[in-house]
Amino acid sequence: MYTKEFEIRWSDIDANRHLANTAYVNFMSHTRMAFLMENGFGQEDLAKENIGPVVFYEHIYYFKEVFAGKPIKVTLQLKGLAEDGMYFEFLHNFYDENGQNFASCEMMGAWIDLKERKLTKLPKALHDNLDSLSHTDDFKILTREDTRKFGKKPQHLNPEKIGF
After folding, report:
1. Which CATH number do you get for residue 113?
2. In sequence order, which ranges of 8-147 are alpha helices (DSSP H)?
């Protein structure tokens, strides 16, 4: 399991004096990008392939407050991956200095061709590198349907009704 340790900084605290929501998102992003950069997904590698990651959603579950002054650990596991690598799902868990799990997040995303601006599969070498990440017990092969499992669709504003 991939793990990063963080120190909670003053800027990571919100008005309630506990870890702010934005800090959770930043710690997860840092953890994911550290794993990816260590496994062939650095800026130069992605530029050579003309691809980049996009986030579909991050569902964070908070179990307990955490405060400044103690280190925390953020883990990363692969919860799902499409056969061609286009879609991926990660699981992050947050642990305090005693190993107590205080938050968890399921995150799904995909790879986009930066020129065509369309989703694209991963080259085999990068797919294999990503698949080397430890898998969750409920790991699954992802399909396009998995990206639509919550049934969310855009709800556009009607310009006539809102005065545009």
Report:
1. 3.10.129.10
2. 21-38, 43-49, 124-131
Sign of the four-CA dihedral 126, 75, 94, 92: positive
pLDDT digits (tens, 9 = 90+) for 1-32: 999 999 999 999 999 999 999 999 999 999 99
Domain count, the chain: 1
Distance CA 59, CA 155 (A): 20
Q: Which run of H or E residues covers position 98?
A: none
The answer for residues whose C-beta is within 8 angstroms of residue 16's C-beta and 6 or more apart is none
108-156 pLDDT tens trace: 999 999 999 999 999 999 999 999 999 999 999 999 999 999 999 998 8
Measured CA to CA, the distance from residue 130 to residue 122 in angstroms comes to: 9
pTM score of the predicted model? 0.92
Separation between Cα atoms, residue 34 and residue 164, nearest integer Å: 43
Domain that holds residue 98: 2-162
